[in-house]
Structures are given as structure tokens and as C-alpha cells.
Amino acid sequence: MLEDDFSDVLRKAQRGLRIDTPDLARMSGLDAQAIDAWRAGDGVPSADEARALAGPLRLDPAKLADRAAGAWEPHVALPANVRHHPHDPHPSNGYLFFLDDGKTAALIDPAGLPATIVRAVNEGPYALRYILITHKHADHCDATADIARTFPGAQIVMHKSDSAAIGSLAQRALPIIDGDELPFGDGASIRMLHTPGHTDGSSCFLFRSTLFSGDTLFAGSVGGAFGDVSTYDDILRSVKFKLFALDDATVLMPGHGPPSTIAEEKAHNPFFL
Known about the structure:
The mean pLDDT is about 95. Helices cover about 30% and strands about 20% of the residues. The strands form three sheets. The protein has a six-stranded mixed sheet, covered by helices on one side. A six-stranded mixed sheet has the order 7-8-9-10-13-14. A two-stranded antiparallel ribbon has the order 11-12. The protein starts with 5 loop residues before the first helix and ends in a 5-residue tail after the last helix. It has helices spanning about 5-15, 20-30, 30-40, 45-55, 60-70, 115-125, 140, 145-150, 230-245, 260-270, and strands at about 80-85, 95-100, 105-110, 125-130, 155-160, 175, 180-185, 190-195, 205, 210-215, 215-220, 220, 250-255, 260. It is α/β, with parallel strands linked by helices and about 270 residues long. It is elongated, with a radius of gyration of 19 Å. The chain has two domains: about 5-70, lambda repressor-like DNA-binding domains (434 Repressor (Amino-terminal Domain)), CATH 1.10.260; about 80-270, Metallo-beta-lactamase, Chain A, CATH 3.60.15.10.
């Protein structure tokens, strides 16, 4: 099930472009009450109505019409070296990925019940090398202190623009520098990508052909723009020029919702023409 339905896409685009419903109605030629209903999740527009909305919202008309019709959903398997765990009580995704030896792992986003994460690491059992944090929101980092205490040998990695969210642990966090690589296994590395927009420090991590995108890119959508400095345009640029520059076969593991691929997102994500 996709993280964002049609109403989410509509609201994110309106908010990002600062287009209120009366203005959108005027620009699209559609009824304002109908737009408000779609925003609230009460029904969806026809294909023609979705295409009319797309222009002023800088969305792809065909992809938006498909979204309104529920015509696409990715069916991508979890890579063999990735394990998913829930972030209960948060509705976000946690991941562990590991080396071919099956013993050394990195954690994406320590959040939710610490016991769930500890159990996932111990089930390997894995030697935890890195605690990689995509951004500052609580549903992605509120278990950092507990996990760092349990696995003191793991290096915390987080962009300095967001690291205040983990309190005093920010002092020992390795700062993300866009394009830099973290050694992980013989001849392998984790590439760090700074992708501002959702937050100022939002970042993604690429290991081999798997991208952990946090709340920058979802299957069929993007994260909302909540940066103090970065903007909605920044999140779109981050995806278009950094993430879409990756190989089409790259598997996308988002912070919410199901896996996808870069090729699927290019073909179906309405935020990109």
C-alpha cells in the first residue's frame, strides 16, 4: 500500500507551491468545493479533472491521472541483504543491511520501541557498525540514545543541520558530507547523499544498488517540505538531480511505504515530469 494517496499528493503540491484552493480552482477551471473534497480524501477526480489539476501544480498529468485511478503500485522485493523492522508505535520503516559475511550490519533510523531494534540486531546476530539517521523527525531518530547505549561501538552518522534532534549524542555523530563514502566491508562503501527539502539535513544512504531514502522520496510521492531553510523546490531538485541520477535498477527503500526502484519512480511518480 502506497504511503500517499491522491489527497496527500494534492495537499503536498498545493502547500509546496503555496496555491490555495480558490486559486487552484481558478487556474484549473474546476470547482473549489470538489477540490476541497479531494483534499479531504472524499472521492477522487476523473482522469480529465486530474489532468486539469496537474498543470498549475507542476505535476505530470498522466501520472496524476493514474494516481487518481489507483492504476499503479510497485511490487519490488526486499533485497537479500536488507531486513525490515517496524518502528512501532510510529508508522515508519526501519532497516538493517549487512555484508556478505552475514555478521556486520548498519542500521537505518533508530526509532520507535528500542526493544524491536535490539531484537532485530541480535537475531542476526550482527555486529552493528553504523547507526545511520536520515533526518531529525522523532519517528526516525527517537530511539537513538537507547540504541547507542546498547551498541556503543556503532558510529552514529547524521547531517549536522538535523543533529540537534539527538541531543548530546550530536557531539559524537559523524557529519554527513554530500558524496562522501563510509567504508563498509572489503572494497565496499556507503555513499552519503545530502538531499535537503523535507528537513534541512535530510539525507539518503546508498549501499551497492540499494538506496535508503528516508522521507525524501517515497513510492509515488515525496516527503512534505518542512525545512527551516530548504524548500519544496529543494526536495524536488534533490530527487531529480541526485536520486534520479542513480542507476534505474537501484532499489528504493523509503522511510514510509513500500519499496520501489528508481526506474519505477521516473515512470510513475507524479511530482516529476
